[in-house]
From TrEMBL:
Identification of the protein by name: Exopolysaccharide biosynthesis protein
Lineage of the species this protein comes from: Bacteria, Bacillati, Bacillota, Bacilli, Bacillales
PANTHER family: N-ACETYLGLUCOSAMINE-1-PHOSPHODIESTER ALPHA-N-ACETYLGLUCOSAMINIDASE
InterPro entries: NAGPA
Origin superkingdom: Bacteria
Pfam families registered for this protein in UniProt: NAGPA (PF09992)
Record domain Phosphodiester glycosidase: where: 172-352
Amino acid sequence: MTPVKRVNRFFMLLTAPFIGLVICMSWYRPPLQLDLDVGQFTPSAGPVNETASLKKELTLAEASAAYTIDAVSASAKLYKETTTTMNKLVETAQTQATRPELIYNRRISAKLGIPSEIVTSDRIRVELYRLNPGNYKAYALKIKLKDPTAMKMSLAETASGAETTMHAVQRNGAIAGINAGGFADQSGKRYPLSTTVVDGKYLYGFEPTYKDLSFVGLNKSGQLIGGKFYSRAQLDQLDPVFGATFVPVLLKNNIKTPIPEKWKTSPNRAPRTVIGKYKDDQILLFVADGYNEYGSSGAQLEEIQNKLSNMGLVDAYNLDGGGSSSLIFNGRVINKPSDGNLRAVPTNFLFFK
């Protein structure tokens, strides 16, 4: 029960007896008996005394009623004042409760700069940032999921098993999207790499982590989850709704995780796609540009790891990069795909207004 409702109940109980007394007094009409037989009328002091007594009682009742009305008025006034005060206290408490969140958001936003574009609704808030750390150019979307259903992972519905991120965004009516997990080609078709979850179901079953692969997705509470999982029960405990697999984990619980030697040099630099989260569960999409995927342009994973750590992320996961890297926002391709065109991939993370 809210504080305002408790105050309402208290004053209802307080004023109930007084209101009842007023109602009873308004109904009470004392009978007045007169002897109309003049011949048999005999003056006596009895009726006079009774009349005087009745008058006295009426006077007392009138005074009591007046006192009751005053008391009820005073109670009503006090009730109104108390209700107003309680409402102000509730509003103040709500404002104070959001202050730490606002302060934290300002702090992490300041490290990104000034957003070049913002889209907001009752389900989501998306802010686009253009970054230039020095050795490469990058783009970031900071996303607050007000509704967990504002993010999902799409699975390509084509004969080839793949579609561009733009096609996935348009087909599903999303406001933003990035490429998700890795893939393997077989018999002319493109398949998601390793453990993949769509609509709460394992697409090809669970596959334990191998070769530093990691799973990343969203759980039922709208929180980004990820890491290495060696049993299905271990992953099921996190209630994944969807997710995909690639390599490596860059940040976990505020700690930089070791980058496998292979991924430090092969390739050294490349276009990159990374997804991560802040401690308040806001999501960050990070896409670095590069003119090819052969090691001579783009960003090193260690550079991105340091950048995201300095920006305050607590978890970060590398997604498929190179020619697969694609960032779509508000109907446009934001990055510059190294293939010259968007590459068709099996899975994409999508966000909805």
